[in-house]
Amino acid sequence: MTIKINMNKFLTFVLLLIFFAKGVNGQSVVSFKSLGFDDDVIAGVSGSSAYFIKIDPTVQIEGSKLVLLIEPSQVLVKSQSYLNILIGDKPVYSTHLSGDSIMRYTINLTKNSLTEDHKFLKVQIRTLLNISDDKCKDIDNPAMWVKVKGTSYLSLIKTTSNFFNNVNISNCFDTKRAIVYPANPTLMDLKAVGWVYARLKKTQIKQIQVYPSDHVPDSLRNYVIVGNWASIPEAKKQLLKFSPEEGQGLLYLRKTVEQLPDTAVREVSNRNSNPIFVKTVSIKPVPSEILFVTGNGDAGYNNTITTLANSNVLNSSYGDYLIINKAENVGVKTIDESRSRLTLKDMGGLTSFLTGVGSLKNSYSFKNSDFAFTPKEIEIKIVGNYANLNLNDRGFFNIYLNGILISSEKLDQSGKLNTSALINRYELQKFNTLETEFRFYPGNGNCQNSFTNYFAEINISKSYLQTKIPFIANNLSFYQYPEAFNTGKTTIILSRRTAPNTAATIGEIIYELNNNLHADNFPDFFYSDQYDKSVLKKNNIIALLEKNDPIMDEFPDAPIKFNQRFRLYNTENNRIVYELNDTVSNGLAQIFYGRGNNGTLIITGTGRNMDKAFLSAARSITDQLSTLSSNICISDEFNKYLFNISKDSDNLEYTDAKGSFALFWESYNLYILLVILVLILISFLYVRSRVQKSQESFND
Asked: Which residue ranges traverse the bilayer (predicted)?
């Protein structure tokens, strides 16, 4: 009996070894909608749509699948309308449309499906549609469309077999969802959190959690821990194979595989092309990663933080640890360096060869903050080539900004495109979409063979957007954030008492300051009780303060004194639209020019949930704001209110400046007047009754 039990244990041990050697695969279903791709319409006789999808390094691409769900216009002639699917610029599937209301196409993925760096999956869908026998009539028919559904998905195989080889410092940020910092953070800890947060947000992670070390949930597996080597708990230090020496910085990726409950998703039904999934929970090997951002001493710790700002170093760190003896932020640019021109290639544009008749479009995106300053006007220069037109052919080139036509010109027989257009600031938004469109119409009315006869291509390296004139206003507004901080040095000032509540907010700010094509803003950090007053005039200032911080008195140009109670009135009807209430958690942000004509942003918070108050304000001021002149933002977790207030505005009133009697009278004056009116009425009635009695006595 004893021999049998030992043999069973031995066999079990062998099976486990085989199990781990092969790795355990689990299926992960990722919808297009969860990646930020909603339903996408491909319109026109011929059109295309492209998707760039980042692939997690723990994914085994061999055996994974792409499932496209496509809804066609019901008036299309299905047998004469075609769909082509390309993976990595190579065709993998071509078919005519089926009669289903939602068509389903499944593509098996291989290692050749990924881009050269093995980080992205590029998917293109091209169409050739038909409604009638006369393609010339089909060109502008609005019913010519197919829709790529946001419910399309990737069925990815998660594996641990190559986990230790594939995951390294350069790509580990893609899988992190949280940051852990010391319970009593120093200024340098908060600076580290900010740069890690900004790095994670650049990987398009939507929800980033920030935890002090004494509030870390037990379920947390993949996260970044920051802290000076002396503040790292001993239990965590034991996970590292070595320690940094004095003055050295260290990035260390700790990788393990743990037996934990894991959720697997599998498709069980495909009714009417609508997939139905079920989730199953089982004990499986789950990869766990902890990235240590630390250093021995302040100098070593600062070296590591400086390295976080250098994408070139991080992207080329293919090992599990990086020792930093010296780090410099050499990417910082001066005001003299040109940041006034963006090529279409800089904006992420890809060279595309467009063919066919009708509308042939390309789309590009840019932000005002991609320039060194908020542009007052932008010149668009487009250079390209197109097919030589015959004598009777018609061709047009159009430019759209945010869906509005801003330029149109007729194409000639030269085949050379060299055109420009001017955008003024009233047409610009904080985030902009630029579209270019070629339109070809054959002169003989024969569209049957025109799809190969007409072509166009834009030179993305020679085409550009350029601005030389900055938009300068008397008062700074959120429309000019963050580019108002693009030139010169930026200093972040924190109130010591509320600084621990600003960790995530600092991350949002650093991300926005560097969320442009010239990411080079490396701000200094100071506490509000330990700073050089000269920086208030020399540098751009971003201050995250508690309401009663004495430093508020150093900003006489602030539209509102947040350290006092105030009311805002509607100038039209003199009604109160906002009144400061300390019991409600609000984020209060204001932007203005300082005494040195420097950009100044102050954010403070009220109420119990200070961390949420600060964070809500930081996020609200980065939205696509419709009120371009807003300089005051008051927000909570669910709402935001924007105002345009000057420091001597008539619709601003400080209630702290009033005495106790004035406040009492203001609050209860109507009631007091009503009581007085009632007393007067009673007195009148009393006197009247006495007079009547006197008259009656006299008459008797």
From this structure: 668-687
CATH number attached to the domain at 178-267+277-324: 3.30.379
Sheet containing 120-128, strands listed edge to edge, beginning at the edge strand earlier in sequence: 46-54, 120-128, 82-87, 90-96
The pLDDT tens digits of the residues spanning 585-608 come to 889 999 999 988 999 999 998 888
- Same CATH topology for 178-267+277-324 and 338-466: the answer is no
Q: What is the average per-residue pLDDT within 524-539?
A: 91
Which amino acid, 444?
Answer: N
Count of residues in the chain: 700
Q: Distance of CA 197 to CAs 436, 452, 511, Å?
A: 35, 49, 8
* CATH architecture for the domain at 338-466: Sandwich (2.60)
Using alpha carbons only, give the angle 293, 294, 299 rounded to the nearest 5 degrees: 130
What DSSP state is assigned to residue 417? E
Residue 427 sits at φ, ψ, to 5 deg, of: -95, -10
Assign domain 26-158 to its CATH superfamily: Galactose-binding domain-like (2.60.120.260)
Query: For 556-585, b where at least 16 C-beta lie within 10 A, e where not — what string?
Result: eebbbbbbebbebbeeeeeeeeeebeeeeb
**CA separation, residue 132 to residues 144, 445, 449, 451, 683 (Å):** 11, 14, 15, 16, 92
Flag whether pLDDT at 532 surpasses 90. no
621's tokens: 């001021």
What is the Cα–Cα distance from 208 to 503, expressed in whole angstroms?
Answer: 12
pLDDT digits (tens, 9 = 90+) for 631-657: 999 888 778 888 888 766 767 776 655
For 128, phi then psi, to 5°, come to -140, 110
12 phi and psi angles, rounded to 5 deg: -65, -40
| Cα 548 to Cα 211, 497, 664, distances in angstroms | 26, 11, 24
At residue 232, the pLDDT reads 93
Task: Write the secondary structure of 322-366 as one string of H (helix), E (strand) and C (coil).
Answer: EEECCCCCCCCCCCCCCCCEEECCCCCCCCCCEECCEEEEEEEEE
661: pLDDT confidence band, cut at 50, 70 and 90? Answer: low
Q: Is 119 exposed, middle or buried (0-12, 13-18, 19+ CB in 10 A)?
A: middle
